[in-house]
Amino acid sequence: MSDKTTNISELGEFGLIDHLTKNFELKNATSLVGVGDDAAVISISEEDALLISTDMLIEGIHFNLMYMPLKHLGYKAVATNVSDICAMNGVAEQITVSLAVSSRFPLEALEELYEGIHIACEKFNVDLVGGDTTSSVSGLTINISVVGRAKKKDIAYRNGAKEFDLLVVTGDLGAAYIGLQVLEREKNVFNANPNIQPDLDGHDYIIERQLKPEARVDIIGYLKELDVVPTSMIDISDGLASEILHLCKASKVGCHIYDEKIPIDSKTSLTAIEFNLDPSTCALNGGEDYELLFTIAQADFDKVKGNPHMTFIGHMTNEKDGTYFIDKNGSAIGLKAQGWNHFQG
Amino acid sequence: MSDKTTNISELGEFGLIDHLTKNFELKNATSLVGVGDDAAVISISEEDALLISTDMLIEGIHFNLMYMPLKHLGYKAVATNVSDICAMNGVAEQITVSLAVSSRFPLEALEELYEGIHIACEKFNVDLVGGDTTSSVSGLTINISVVGRAKKKDIAYRNGAKEFDLLVVTGDLGAAYIGLQVLEREKNVFNANPNIQPDLDGHDYIIERQLKPEARVDIIGYLKELDVVPTSMIDISDGLASEILHLCKASKVGCHIYDEKIPIDSKTSLTAIEFNLDPSTCALNGGEDYELLFTIAQADFDKVKGNPHMTFIGHMTNEKDGTYFIDKNGSAIGLKAQGWNHFQG
Questions:
Q1: ipTM score of the complex?
Q2: What is the tens place of the pLDDT at every residue in A112-171?
Q3: What domains sit in chain B, N to C, each tagged with a CATH number?
Q4: Which of A122, A323, A17, A123 lies closest to B133, judged by CA?
Q5: Which residue among B6, B8, B52 sits closest to A129, beta carbon to beta carbon?
């Protein structure tokens, strides 16, 4: 090791991965796509490929067991991995689960965690095929790897968007972030006075969006039925703004997205206002919605138009025209990612 | 959660995995084999399968950065995963790496870790295709998942050994364990007086076996050349005794293994004696050798006989005849696993 040391927070999560993996080349003919998309792509026949993705969740960084019950944690860990396969327009089939737990967790706690994993496996039709279980020095760490499958011609990469393509988002956004604010508030109330019961009434939807996100496997089915292959796709884990910028950067295009078109549930909007937050900002930067963001060729507009699960929020432009958010007054504001960076703050 | 709580150490690592996954069924037709072997088996065509395995390493549990340089840790993490694919008689092709690090690790430390990963990828001809990098509350956690490939007819499972099959081990055993004893001793000397330089002279082989174990990908090639498919196979991560018992239990057979036939390098024996340890005990219970243990049908004896990388150490018997270690005096001693259990002591 040289004498000079560099703090890893200077690079950010994506910069760090890019830096550490820049010397690695793909040498096996079966390795079609490596680091840099939602999943790696491995050739298994002339027409078919497997998709592989992996995700590590750390107690105290990605989840807080004070308000994230273990059953929900298990469910969410599977759902977020399945979502990565959806983001490639593939179908998840298998997972492996690695778990490190300190001895403060009794067997019954792990049973709850695995019950959540089991419910998610049933829901998303994936098989638990392997894993590793070990002790930890402190806390709980869970790493899930997921294997999915797709026809090579159907795989949607991040880098396929073209100028004039239409930008589509599924479901509604911002709810998971606002749900987290409610949970944080009630945790603070509880910490101040443990005799006060948490007040979660009327917040069921947004709290469920935070604690029990769904992978949009249904969308992959709809796209198949509609005979639409997205020109690019990503799932929304870090916030809409961050994900749009990923697509634009990978595809070398710009974009216009329209504030008034971003789908936000009324319960999300009302609670955001209660917290003095702008609902659009929650949707743009909140993250953890696990909806899908994709682009389609204009020729496919009529196939997608009117689908209740999909909303057009903008279009791709020439790279040199930049990436813009058009607010409700028609003003164009440069789009900035303020998604999560676990190496900062 | 019920009121009753059970300490997870009561089940041990394997009992815990069995318990937590007992309600999981394989539902996808492509999931051929799930939890319980060195790797899961996923069908990709009539003749071919992918093999998937995953392994989590925790600082303070599986490695100590005081004497395990990060470059070696990276190498070893890849090698042990590739070894799991070898243990199925398959060829590893891709890995994903998930990493959690606390901010005390500068970028240069992670560069060292990835240099070790890179060297191992080159050595074992595997491609790094994905990963996840995040911060941790404390210490370093690394999870590697590996993807391998095999013809279905060539896959060696743990449960295929038959009575009268011959038990074969590759390389030599016990060195990694004795190497660890030397490193522990020098660590204690250093802690007592940091001015004393570690005395590792003459221990290169056993220390390298601990710090830089090799996956026996060469053996998979030799078996192919010899046209031998093992009737059962496992890699030696937890010690010879523990692994033999895994094969016997999965295959529903007994065994006789012979002390005098266990391959132990002279440097291992000499250092064991220096530590007042019985070399055979180190081989039986030490672990981390990452050699391969397999059974072959008697009909294949002539093909394997005389191969410098493979040693016959015993044979399988009828299940009801039990599992025995025959010592140098010819006495039969019941074989016991004293391999590592990270949930105890």
A1: 0.90
A2: 999 999 999 999 999 999 988 888 888 899 999 999 999 999 999 999 999 999 999 999
A3: 17-154 (3.30.1330.10), 166-334 (3.90.650.10)
A4: A17
A5: B52
